[in-house]
Amino acid sequence: MKLTVIVGQCFGLNPVLGVCDIDTSKLRFTYFSVRCVYALIAIVGQTVFLNCFFFIKYFNETDTSVTSNSTLVFYVSNTIITILFLRLAKQWPQLCQYISKIEAADPITDTTLVKKCNVSCILILVMAMLEHGLAELSGMVMAADCQPEKIYETYIVHSFPWINLHVNYTLFLGIITQFLNILCTFNWNFGDLFIISISFYLTSRLEQVNRKIVEVKGKYVPTTFWRNVREDYNRATDLVRRVDKVIGSIVFISFANNLIFICLQLLHTFALLHGYEQAVYFTYSFLFLVVRSLAVSLIASRVHTASRQPVYNLYEVPSAAYCIEIQRFIEQIHGDTVALTGLQFFKVKRGIVLAIAGTIVTYELVLLQFTGITPTVAPLDDTPQTN
Q1: Which residues cross the membrane (predicted)?
Q2: In this predicted structure, which of 192-196, 198-202, 262-266 has the lowest mean pLDDT?
């Protein structure tokens, strides 16, 4: 995950030192590093320039809209993500050192793991950059239609309406606010990317145990083999629990964010869009959000699927080779649920995709009722047609 961690540090996330070293003992966290100071500045900037100013505007308004509520949720949730990754940085060195001990005892054999993490990182970030570029283009075109003589100022004031209400616009203030907005946008995507990369590794550890069982399928092996395999499985499941304690809060807010903004994006499809630029942006943004949400849900749920896979192969062990260790192994798999969780509120399994889909449909109907938006059909033309 070196590429993923380094890219995240460019945006103030997970500011640990020594990420480029192979030796995990060189990983460390300190508040007096440049990376940590950068992360703290990002948190303070997002809190003051984005959250506080928007809160003041929000409470001064006599009426609010779904759009203003979604903006508030976007900035607050992504500021929380930045804080959670700062908290994660304090636990990251210890977690990596524990993983290093597991790797020393049982090295991972999946040669495609690094490639999958790097490809996911590049693919998601390129798609996120394209989404942000379309958003910027849509805003610039709208600003050019309104006031073509000062496009950038109009774009900043329209995108961040608390500017000129509490503080006067300056070019420096506009650049700082836009930079902080880019950080929030990146954090929104990086949370899913981080969960995907972690899930790839945990799934590979569990699948490696299953491969050992498949390799001896139909063969007679001693009891010591099954004891060693069960101990490998215990190490893998214990690793899942340790990782879940560290990233559980990130999983929770990531899934909550995706659920909320899918509903809001669906609601925007019933609103009037200005120009094809805005239509292209909303279409691409919604599709990207759905694909990213499905990817993080399905890939993270593979951890649970991989933890259950060994039991199906254990059922096929011949009666002559059956022993107490196999029985204990089967009972352990059935008696325990191994999966990533969102602060223990929910477990990420394959069925969570259907649960999220049902929730989206329910809340979309509620949002339509509260906002008063009703999908309409174009009226039929009653005039007779002439040939």
Answers
A1: 37-60, 72-89, 169-202, 246-267, 279-300, 352-373
A2: 262-266
| Residue the block writes with tokens 């933890």 | 307
Classify the phi-psi angles of 319: left when phi > 0, otherwise alpha if psi is within -120 to 50, otherwise beta: alpha
Supply the Cα-derived Rg of the chain in whole angstroms: 25
Q: What distance separates the 2 farthest-apart alpha carbons in the chain?
A: 88
pLDDT band at 377 (very low <50, low <70, confident <90, very high): very low
pLDDT of 189 over the 80 cut: yes
* Cα 33–Cα 34–Cα 38 angle in degrees, nearest 5: 120
Question: Is residue 20 classed exposed, middle or buried when 0-12, 13-18 and 19+ CB atoms within 10 A define those classes?
Answer: exposed
| Mean pLDDT (whole number) for 83-108 | 90
How many CA atoms within 13 Å lie on the side-chain side of 243?
A: 25
Residue 118 CA to residue 121 CA, distance in Å, equals 5
Q: How far apart are CA 124 and CA 295, in angstroms?
A: 10
- For 160-173, what is the mean pLDDT? 75
Distance, CA of 191 to CA of 178 (rounded, Å): 20
**Of 219, 235, 234, nearest to 328 (Cα)?**
234
CA geometry: angle 112, 114, 119, nearest 5 deg:
90
Residue 341: its H or E element: none
DSSP state for residue 48 in the 8-state scheme: I
Q: Give the pair of three-digit tokens for residue 172.
A: 């420096």
The DSSP element (H or E) to which 383 belongs, if any, is none
Q: How many other β-carbons are positioned within 10 Å of the β-carbon of residue 197? A: 21
